[in-house]
Design brief:
The structure is a single chain. Helix content is 34%, strand content 17%. The chain is an alpha+beta fold. The strands form four sheets. Strands 1, 2, 3, 4, 12, 13 and 14 form a seven-stranded antiparallel beta sheet that branches. The two termini are 30 Å apart. It is built from 15 helices and 15 strands. A hairpin with a 2-residue loop joins strand 10 and strand 11. The longest helix has 14 residues, at 70-83. The protein has helices at 13-24, 70-83, 93-96, 110-114, 129-132, 135-144, 161-173, 180-192, 217-223, 229-236, 241-246, 260-263, 276-287, 297-304, 379-392, and strands at 4-8, 30-37, 40-51, 56-57, 64-65, 196-198, 213-214, 272-274, 312-313, 320-324, 327-329, 344-347, 353-357, 362-368, 370-371.
Length: 393
């Protein structure tokens, strides 16, 4: 029996019940879930083991890698630059980064790039670990990449590459030349008191980070029915665009994402580390337009604007998805937030998810250390999310 710790406000007992069921029935080993509403925590739960090998309990401040849930954090950082008047969503990327215009990309806008429409999901040049620390060389490689489809003609999930492009844009746009990880640390984490990093600093002990593992056979089989067959086939084919988009840079297997050399580089799409409490607090601040958040209300309204175009099949995920300004948005089959469809956030490989719901004035986050196989709507996370909204009535 997993030990569950934390607190829930009156009326949110259903969330605690589902969190317990995740351990009893759905294969969780260690995890945390948090909800902030109206600027205060109403759910803050953690439990199980952060390290099964050493039988170490998940602590209140245990952090966990959250994979693509990082994308939403990075998108908020880019939104802070928009809030300061330093970027325009509809301006060409090449306006800020002239070299980007190579290979037919001269007309790609930030809005298209952030919506996964630029055709840059796969980077053909092999990215070595040492290159991730040499941002000037990395920028040359990214700028030279030719798009795989006509930018703007469709969208295909830029699993890792999106954050690399965003990071170079941040360096060029920020007056101090800061990266996304630095802006996050200085402008977001410090004033909001967050334990959340993109590029884990040496000052953080790796023992504070949960050790990842895979779901067992029973838990995996439970998730197979919800995974598109075409995506499953792509994932098993190392030459498919989807598999190639995940494999470069080839850092390590997912369950080794507690190694310093994997977590230290800034990969703003995929290697964020933090507590679900911090991710929920960040999104809660966005949902309520907190004055501590370096994003103004006008920009937050832009992030929450409902997407009116019909969802179309993603060229890599082979499922209907909508992306806007760096975030995933609600669509039938992947719905989150209130009925008005103003929620925004990103799910991560393995089961994590974080989002803001401005209509419910709510920030939400869940992250496990036993990884599932879905890219979204993990059964453990979905049960918790539904319990949150059932609690809201």
């Amino acid at each position: 029996m997993a030990r569950i710790c934390g607190e829930v406000d009156e009326g949110f007992g259903k969330v605690a019940d589902e969190f317990r069921r995740n351990f009893d029935r759905r294969g969780d080993v260690g995890a945390a879930v948090a909800v902030h509403r109206d600027g205060r925590p109403v759910v803050d739960l953690w439990g199980g083991l952060r390290d099964t090998g050493r039988r170490l309990a998940w602590q209140r401040d245990t952090m966990v890698p959250v994979f693509s849930t990082t994308k939403g954090v990075s998108a908020l950082v880019m939104a802070s630059l928009r809030s300061k008047g330093l970027l325009d969503w509809d301006e060409r990327v090449a306006y800020y980064w002239p070299e980007f215009a190579a290979a037919g990309k001269q007309d790609v806008t930030l809005r298209q790039l952030f919506a996964h429409e630029a055709g840059l999901a796969v980077i053909d040049t092999r990215l070595r670990l040492r290159m991730l620390g040499d941002l000037d060389t990395l920028a040359d490689v990214l700028a030279a990449q030719a798009p795989a489809w006509e930018p703007g003609s469709g969208h295909g999930y830029h699993a890792v590459s999106l954050g690399l492009y965003q990071n170079e844009l941040a360096r060029r746009i920020d007056p101090q030349g800061r990266t996304i990880g630095r802006i996050l640390a200085e402008d977001f984490a410090a004033p909001l008191g967050l334990s959340l990093y993109i590029g884990l600093p040496d000052s953080v002990d790796l023992d504070e980070v949960a050790v990842l593992g895979r779901l067992g056979l029973r838990g995996t089989l439970r998730q197979v029915p919800g995974m598109p067959w075409g995506l499953a086939r792509q994932a098993s084919n190392r030459r498919s665009p989807f598999a190639r988009s995940l494999a470069n840079p080839a850092l390590a297997k997912a369950e080794r994402f507690t190694q310093r050399h994997v977590l230290s580089p800034e990969l703003p799409s995929s290697n964020g580390v933090g507590t679900p409490r911090s991710i929920a607090a960040l999104y809660g601040a966005a949902a309520t337009a907190s004055p501590k958040l370096p994003v103004d209300e006008v920009t937050l309204q832009e992030l929450a604007e409902p997407v009116t175009t019909p969802p179309v099949a993603d060229l890599l995920l082979l499922a209907r998805r909508v992306f806007a300004l760096g975030f995933s948005r609600p669509v039938p089959g992947h719905w989150f937030g209130s009925p008005a469809a103003r929620a925004y956030g990103t799910p991560g490989l393995g089961g994590s998810f974080g989002f803001a719901d401005p209509d419910a004035r709510l920030g939400y986050a869940y992250a496990p250390n036993r990884l599932g196989i879905r890219l979204s709507d993990d059964p453990r996370e979905t049960a918790l999310r539904r319990a949150v909204y059932a609690s809201l009535g």
